[in-house]
Amino acid sequence: MIDVTKINIQTVAEDSTYGEFVMDLLPRGYGYTLGTPIRRTLLTSMSGSAITSVKINGVKHEFSTITGVKEDVLKILLNLKKIIVKNHTDKPQVITLSVKGQKTVTAGDIDKNALVDVINKDLVIAEMTAKSAAIEIEMTVENGVGYVIADNLRRSKIGTIPLDANFSPVERVSMDVFPTRSGQETDLDKLVLKIWTRGNEKPSDVLKNAIDHLKSIFSGMSGVGSVEAEEEVSEKEVKTSKATKTVKKKTTKKTK
């Protein structure tokens, strides 16, 4: 049995978008045994926030143009998909952008919302080329997992344009396993995980969430027992069945 109390998880370096973590004193082979599912979970199963639909004032579909704006609507939508957000609630939130005049519109121009953070505020959304130009956008922010294709059912409201949503807060994960030792024990593994996020979640937080996610999966598994135990249950079921049939026969005879 592996003694999990001897496993150390150390933070080597971390900022808002990058973290390096070391898990050492692992029995030989456990570097890959633990590292592979953690890496896959980080890349596929972490929840996050994204813009899922957009409504632009005066625009009915994505193949439109806006007077006084250099980019067409399709290009603007592609830029909006790149906005990194964090929804601090479990419910969908609406953020708005309202700009007039000749200027470069960035994600930093989005109106402040106490429940939603915009991370990459320098992202350029559109270039307004005329003083009379105006653009008003409503964006719905939701939480989810993985990459979700745009849902056309959202088009039930005229002017609402659904977007593909990348909910995953993790951009990239690398994993390396090295031999290590502890005193006289030389047959040990050291697992090194490097995690790059999009900035809406800290690397240490997503690592903790990934480990907790795996714990919940394994702890929820049931129905695994020994053959002897299954045979004992089967014998009890047979005896119970025979006893029930005997009682029914006696009851039938008394009734007659």
Total number of domains: 2
The fraction of residues assigned to DSSP E strands is 35-45%
Q: Stretches where pLDDT falls below 50 for ≥5 residues?
A: none
What is the CATH topology descriptor of the largest domain? RNA Polymerase Alpha Subunit, Chain A, domain 2
Largest sheet, strands/sense/barrel: 4 strands, antiparallel
What would CATH call the class of the largest domain? Mainly Beta
Question: What form results from the Cα inertia axes?
Answer: elongated
Distance between the termini: 63 Å
Number of helices: 4
CATH homologous superfamily of the largest domain, by name? DNA-directed RNA polymerase, insert domain
Oligomer: single chain
Mean pLDDT: 86
Largest sheet, spatial ordering of strands: 1-2-14-13
Helix content: 25-40%
Structural category: alpha+beta
The rounded Rg comes to 28 Å
Element string (H = helix, E = strand)? EEHEHEEEEEEEEEEEHH
Number of strands: 14
State the CATH architecture of the largest domain.
Beta Complex
Briefly summarize what is shown.
The chain has 256 residues and is an alpha+beta fold.
Essential attributes:
4 helices; 2 domains; Gyrase A, domain 2; RNA Polymerase Alpha Subunit, Chain A, domain 2; four-stranded antiparallel β-sheet; alpha+beta; 14 strands
Topology summary:
Blueprint (H helix, E strand, L loop, with lengths): L7 E7 L3 E10 L2 H15 L2 E10 L16 H9 L3 E3 L5 E8 L2 E4 L9 E3 L5 E5 L5 E12 L1 E2 L11 E3 L2 E2 L3 E13 L2 E13 L5 H17 L7 H29 L1
Antiparallel strand pairs: 1-2, 2-14, 3-9, 3-11, 4-7, 5-9, 6-8, 10-12, 13-14
Helix pairs in contact: 1-3
